[in-house]
Write a structure and sequence with these properties.
- The complex is a heterodimer.
- Chain A is built from 24 helices and 28 strands.
- In chain A, strands 16, 17, 18, 19, 20, 21, 22, 23, 24, 27 and 28 form an eleven-stranded mixed β-sheet that branches. A six-stranded mixed β-sheet of chain A has the order 2-1-8-7-5-6, sandwiched between helices. In chain A, strands 9-15-14-10-11 form a five-stranded mixed β-sheet.
- In chain A, α7 packs across α8.
- Chain B is built from five helices and no strands.
- At the A-B interface, α13, α16 and α17 of A face α1 and α3 of B.
């Protein structure tokens, strides 16, 4: 375990406050409010509400969506003066290319190629391409905590020595989904945004991006240090915070512990402070529980609005600027502080030395993330407590899968006969063990997730979820009803369900999982990214964690979005779940942290892969149909480099094409290791024994973000 | 299982053991709302006959919460042209089906009265 410090080597941000560090700092010093009536897109019968819009001009002809362009502007500033690309990118986003997709759907444009940058992962892929980064590109989507979560994960990657320079942050553009979605929840204040005010009535939806170049390398003049992070889940409600701020309090405590600092060491708190009555009250309660005398504090959302996935990263940037320039930003928009909160927010900006900042970000699904930023070298280096993060292997204690054939037993039975399990399971299969009241508001993806979670015996503490496309039904229904009602009657239920982390939030509530709750949306690598994050974030002492991947097939939306489905039907969905811990006793098998291979290359160097196949009995290969030709060539190079021929199963031929098919494949690997053989019909031969030294399977996923995971008997 | 699962299965049991007071007179608006809410909120295990118009609507046996309230707000505006956008007002209006019907009747130009 490398307990190295994590420094901020570069910072780029664009928000309603301005573009770039200097403009942001000037706006904070001025205590100016950037919230204005929406101009970005025309409204039909929808109400014009105040929002936080950036200065980026909207170009209707641009094929690159707005979120991508905001992210690139921030990335360029963060990378200014750097001579090499980052080793990895971790990006938080909730909107991806949805603003563009909204235009397309409304105009009836059903050309699939027009939707190629809809997916959340395409923002990080775009950055990687523009910056020539061939390392891991992780996309996290946990609503309004996404940007802070991305920075938290980057911190762990650097500490574990898996990278030396990581570009991390968040980006979200204004779009109809969030604009009307938050309005439908009656969370938008028609009179601007006044966090912590006695008469506060809600938030202002905003947009923006911030990226931080984080490094474990010593720098002559780092801006600040990301000294600690803490994650938790309320496991309480899909959209409302825990009324006592329980989860928020635990995230802050964890961040302070990670930084090795007592609460008294914090000299400024950057609040989540959205301006909704419930959020501000819960956050205030949490702060009063943790701090005997709270330090100076403020929310900047009264100035900028709430830029959702970008907010946590923008505010980490604000924290770094506060430290670097000795500025305590004001709680802009405050008229009369709410006495019920028991806090004294900064009513004007103040010049003062700042050495340690706590920055809070909380999101739908009860997702909480807190960061501690400090002046370089302030906190003592923490002891090497998190040894487990260097451990490459998790122990698998439970599994479940769902396929077109049905549940785990049915799926395994079909495959044992070499039959396909592609397609979609009947709704009744998903609902079989779920109480009707639990799922009455839930569409197919959260039902898949809950069915998987319920089928794994054991109560996890933390949830790691991968989904390539998130809740397509909810997004489709929300936008359809929005258009059909000429923007008058958007559905709050569909909006809450449309966030990518909604299924993981439902699982956490159902199982009472109050630890980290991470949703990754990395296209075909979504499940691998979720497993990777679990390996980074789970330490020795943790209880079991649930890592699951699922995608739904939507008859109208999926064919527009999923290129592999267009290349090879039928419409398929399902997923898989693994219950993991560091405890090896009684384990079914061990699973490695996924290894990400260089992406966007021809994979000419197969040395690393060849080494991974050592001792393997078989390769389970995922070749998404959209890129099959290129991937067959890559696979051919690998096989040619091997000293002995290795049996190969192209598992998508059996599972069908869906983004998280690899989660299903992972469950198959565990099941076959446990059974001691791989069914012969899948290999056109006799059963392949998996015993002794050959009890080892390599799950190799190619596609846009190639990665490899080992499954071995202990 | 913990939390919601437990509470829900508990409330289901109670729901089925409830003896429902039969309405003396059928209010057509109440009956219409029952059908609409069962569909809107996907109350799969509730029938118009078992839907007690005087029972606590929100936070009661049916597991109806704040998101459902907002969904009902949208429906009531769409179908009856009645706007409910104040939280305190909302709490009173959604006390029961009877109170909801009464509020709609008092404020709508289209609801049957």
């Amino acid at each position: 375990m490398n307990t190295s410090r994590v420094f901020i080597a570069g910072l780029g941000l664009i928000s309603p406050l301005g573009r770039g560090q200097a403009a942001t700092l000037a706006a904070l010093r001025d205590n100016s409010c950037a919230i204005r009536p929406l101009e970005l897109f025309p409204l039909l019968k929808g109400e014009t509400l105040p929002v936080g819009q950036t200065e980026l001009a909207e170009d209707a002809a641009a094929t690159t969506p707005r979120t991508h362009r905001l992210a690139l502007l921030a990335a360029r500033e963060a990378m200014a003066g750097q001579h090499a690309p980052p080793d990895a990118i971790v990006l938080g986003t909730t909107t991806g290319g949805i603003l563009t997709s909204e235009h397309l759907l409304r105009s009836g444009d059903m050309r699939p190629e027009a939707y190629r940058r809809h997916g959340l992962t395409t923002v990080a892929e775009f950055l990687a391409q523009e910056l020539s980064c061939h390392g891991p590109c992780l996309t996290v989507s946990t609503a309004c905590s996404s940007g802070a979560l991305a920075i938290a994960i980057a911190r762990r990657m650097l500490q574990a020595g898996l990278a030396r320079r990581v570009l991390a942050g968040g980006a979200d553009a204004l779009c109809r989904l969030t604009y009307f979605g938050f309005h439908s929840l009656q969370l938008v204040d028609r009179g601007g945004c006044h966090p912590l005010d006695r008469d506060r009535q809600g938030m202002a939806v905003a947009e923006g991006a911030a990226l931080l170049l984080l490094t474990s390398e010593r720098l002559p003049w780092p801006l600040a240090e990301v000294a600690g992070m803490g994650l938790s889940c309320d496991a309480h409600h899909a959209a409302a915070p825990h009324p006592e701020g329980d989860g928020a309090c635990r995230a802050m405590q964890a961040a302070l512990a990670d930084a090795g600092l007592p609460p008294a060491a914090i000299d400024y708190i950057n609040l989540h402070g959205t301006g909704t009555p419930e959020n501000d009250l819960a956050e205030a309660k949490a702060i009063r529980r943790l701090f005997a005398v709270p330090p100076p504090l403020s929310s900047v959302k009264g100035a900028s609005g709430h830029s959702l996935a970008a907010a946590g990263a923008i505010e980490a940037g604000v924290a770094a600027l506060a430290i670097g320039h000795g500025l305590l930003p004001a709680n802009t928009g405050l008229r009369s502080s709410d006495p019920a909160l028991g806090l004294a927010p900064l009513d004007t900006p103040r010049d003062a030395p700042v050495t340690a900042v706590l920055s809070n970000s909380f999101g739908f699904g009860g997702n909480n993330a807190a960061l501690v930023l400090t002046a370089p070298g302030l906190a003592a280096l923490p002891p090497a407590t998190a040894k487990a993060q260097a451990q490459e292997f998790f122990a698998v204690h439970g599994t479940a899968c769902l396929s077109g054939a049905g549940d785990t037993a049915t799926t395994l039975e079909r495959l044992a006969h070499g039959e396909s399990v592609a397609g979609q399971a009947e709704a009744t299969v998903l609902e079989k063990n779920l109480p009707p009241r639990l799922i009455r508001r839930l569409q197919r993806l959260p039902r898949l997730a809950l069915a998987l979670a319920s089928a794994v015996s054991g109560i996890p503490r933390a949830i790691f979820f991968g989904s390539g496309w998130g809740g397509q039904t909810e997004t489709w229904n929300f936008l359809t009803r929005l258009n059909e009602s000429e923007e008058q009657f958007p559905s709050p239920t569909d909006f809450v369900g449309s966030v990518h982390n909604a299924p993981a939030g439902q699982v956490a509530m159902h199982l009472g999982a109050t630890g980290a709750n991470v949703t990754c949306s990395g296209g075909d690598a979504s499940f691998a990214q979720a497993l990777f994050c679990a390996a980074l974030l789970v330490d020795d002492t943790a209880d079991p964690v649930l890592v699951l991947g699922a995608d739904e097939g939507h008859p109208r939306f999926t064919p527009l979005l999923e290129p592999s489905l267009r290349a090879a039907g039928p419409l398929s969905d399902g997923g898989g779940a693994l219950l993991l811990s560091r405890r090896r006793e009684g384990a079914r098998c061990l699973v490695s942290r996924p290894r990400f291979l260089p992406h966007d290359t021809e994979l000419t160097d197969v040395t690393e892969l060849t080494a991974l196949t050592a001792g393997c009995a078989v390769i389970l290969a995922g070749l998404p149909a959209a890129d099959r030709e290129r991937d067959e060539a890559r696979l051919g190079r690998l096989l040619a480099a091997l000293s002995r021929p290795l049996p190969l199963i192209r598992y998508r031929a059996y599972t069908g094409e869906f983004a998280s098919a690899s989660a299903l494949a992972a469950v198959l690997a565990v099941s076959w290791l446990r059974a001691g053989h791989i069914p012969g019909p899948l290999l056109d031969g006799p059963d392949l024994p998996l015993t002794g030294s050959t009890a080892r399977i390599l799950l190799l996923d190619l596609g846009k973000m190639p990665n490899a995971t080992l499954f071995v008997l202990p | 299982m913990l939390g919601i699962y437990h509470i829900l299965s508990q409330s289901q049991k109670e729901l089925f053991s409830l003896t429902h007071a039969t309405a003396n007179t059928m209010d057509p608006l109440v009956e219409e709302l029952k059908v609409k809410l069962i569909h809107l909120l996907n109350l799969a295990d509730v029938t118009p006959a078992s839907f007690d118009e005087n029972a606590q609507l929100v936070g009661g046996e049916l597991g109806i919460d704040s998101i459902d309230v907002l969904e009902m707000v949208v429906m009531i505006e769409k179908d009856y042209g009645v706007v409910i956008n104040n939280q305190d007002l909302g709490e009173k209006v959604f006390t029961s089906l009877t109170s909801l019907a009464g509020y709609i009747r008092a404020h709508s130009s289209t609801a049957g009265s």
